Amino acid sequence: MSTSVSAPSDRSARSDRSALSAEGLRVAYGDVEVVRGVDLVVRPGEKVGVVGESGCGKSTVALALMGLLASGGAVTGGVVSVAGGRVDYRDEKALDRMRGSQLSLVFQDPLTSLDPVKTIGSQIAEALRRHNPRMSRAAVRARCAELLTAVGVPEPERRLRQYPHEFSGGMRQRALIAIAVANDPAVLIADEPTTALDVTTQAQVVELLDSLVDRLGVAVVLVTHDIGLVSEFCDRVMVMYAGRVVEEVPSAALFDGAAHPYTRALLGSLPVPGRPRSDDLTWIPGAPPPLAALPAGCSFAPRCTWAQPECSAGQPPRVVVPSPGTTTGEVHVAECRRALEVVASSRSDESTEGEPRG
Amino acid sequence: MKGTRVQAGTAVVLLAVLVLLAVAGIFLRGTATTVDVANALVPPGPGHWFGTDAQGRDVFARVAVGTSIALASGLGAVAVGGGLGLVIALVCGLGPRWLDAVLVRLLDAVMAFPALLLALAVTMAFGTGLLTALVGVVVTVVPVFARTLRAEARRATSEPFVQAARTIGLSTPHLAVRHVVPYLGTTFSVQTAANVGNVILVLSGLSFIGVGAQPPTPEWGAMITEGLQNALTGQWWIGVFPGLALLVTVVAVNLLADSIPAVRAARLARRRTSRPRREATAPAPVEA
């Protein structure tokens, strides 16, 4: 697959094969552009991670794709296709038909995402009936039980009659995932699905998502700030910073071959079990820039240890990074003029952590 | 908790008595308007429990019929007014902001008038009678429901489960009916109970001053007015019994309104701690 995303012929070829494709997606709240040209292509059955600090636009991308931006927010540019069909974000009826049937979203907080006064069964049934009005009662019941079983909730018949407060946090997240996949969507977007859960439950939920990809062929977009989780679970990782994808990298190449200083910094701040205590974790000085007043040139330059004067002069180029560990067709692109130097340095000092001062 | 139970119990007992009285009233409609001049102004006793009035009509029968009128018109007015208020609240809560702003200003304007005055104005404009009095009362009930429910509906839209319901493709009307209306349940029932008492009071007030139900009708307010003429000469029972019925009704309904949230909370707590009611009928295959 080519790395140039602007060629028109290439664009149409891509969206035919993709479960979800967003090209040059832009989102603005009033005058402030919070997502500045994001390209995201997800093939059927693929697991793509979107990572970054808080406020980088990860969740905004998820909400924008669903057409559920908070009032004041709007998609201001880009072409989005889901399951081969172009999405028109002004057509509310078409969006309603798409949501839950082709594109589903699971929110961060399973504790509050279920209606407290309705049974789990009626909430799963609601999703089924919304998109299959002719389904018989018996068929809906059977399918609900099947879905709960599929997400690993034991005794589905009894569980369907229970209310959300009778479910634990992990069970509620499973129920929400059951609702999300009820209509066999092409893509499931999971927005920090494990953040509100304890660590062992997190692992179970991730395992569940993995098994759903295998069994249903659904593609998963995992939005999270947990870069460790992403590297475990995903095929491909998109690293976002200040409303842009600054690096797109196959997970296999993430730890040894990350080419953007921001990605390296995120990895450096990740605690690794077994690493000697003396190795301090690194952190990134400062905070992401306010989107209303972005620095000129590369947005990350003010916090970057690799920054050179010319980084602040103009938009950084998209650099294709050759990664030895990746198969053909996998893309590794970093939006940094020194990407190749960053990769080279990370490969040379594999065992020593820390930021080379450049 | 115990106080709540006593309060709720009292309300239920009083309301049960009133409902019995109202049912009796349905069968006593004939008796209530039968004039018997020979037996006029008989004091309460075994033959006429509440005595008879100046025309010899049985006061108990009249109070009973009055009870059915009061309960039916009170519940009816609140059901219609509350229903309209709920619809307006949903439009305000889920509709476009500008429409919300316009409707809220209109509701505020209506609310600025005291209920009795507004109802009085409506009866003045459309003629006196029980029906126009009812219309007037409905007009006063609508904004009370609409304002409180609107605030709740707005809050509902920011609840994560309402947001989550959008992700499965529910349209706004679906969302309103399936998730927002149940969310408003407690507020709606409290408002209903709180307003029934008030509506009955306002309706009787209108009849009392002569713009509501008109004299032959055994309406409490109208009966109290009639009773006033006899009170000075010592026939107290003609006005006092309908007055007592009115008092008991309003107190019972307000006691009930007060205990609804506590009772609902207690029921929820019980359900939370109770064991699952039934076991699954068929053991389902458990996947690892």
UniProtKB/TrEMBL annotation, chain A:
| GO BP, sorted A to Z | peptide transport
One Pfam family here: ABC_tran
Keywords, ordered alphabetically: ATP-binding, Cell membrane, Membrane, Nucleotide-binding, Transport
InterPro entries xref list: AAA+_ATPase, ABC_Ni/Peptide_Import, ABC_transporter-like_ATP-bd, ABC_transporter-like_CS, Oligopep_ABC_C, P-loop_NTPase
What are the transmembrane regions? none
GO MF terms listed in the record are:
ATP binding; ATP hydrolysis activity
What is the originating organism of this protein?
Answer: Quadrisphaera granulorum
- Gene3D superfamilies in the record: P-loop containing nucleotide triphosphate hydrolases
**Locations listed in the record:** Cell membrane
Q: Which GO terms describe its cellular component?
A: plasma membrane
> What protein name applies here?
Peptide/nickel transport system ATP-binding protein
Coiled-coil intervals in this record?
none
Q: How does it sit in the membrane?
A: Peripheral membrane protein
TrEMBL record, chain B:
Ranges that cross the membrane: 64-90, 102-122, 196-216, 236-257
Entry keywords, A to Z: Cell membrane, Membrane, Transmembrane, Transmembrane helix, Transport
Family annotation (Pfam families): BPD_transp_1 (PF00528)
Kindly list the organism's lineage. Bacteria, Bacillati, Actinomycetota, Actinomycetes, Kineosporiales
- Single GO BP term: transmembrane transport
- Family, as annotated: Belongs to the binding-protein-dependent transport system permease family.
The ABC transmembrane type-1 domain covers 63-257
Cellular component, GO, one term: plasma membrane
Annotated CDD domains: TM_PBP2 (cd06261)
Q: What is this protein called?
A: Peptide/nickel transport system permease protein
Topology of the protein relative to the lipid bilayer: Multi-pass membrane protein
Q: Which domain of life is it from?
A: Bacteria
Q: Which organism is it from?
A: Quadrisphaera granulorum
Principal localization? membrane
The subcellular localization recorded is: Cell membrane
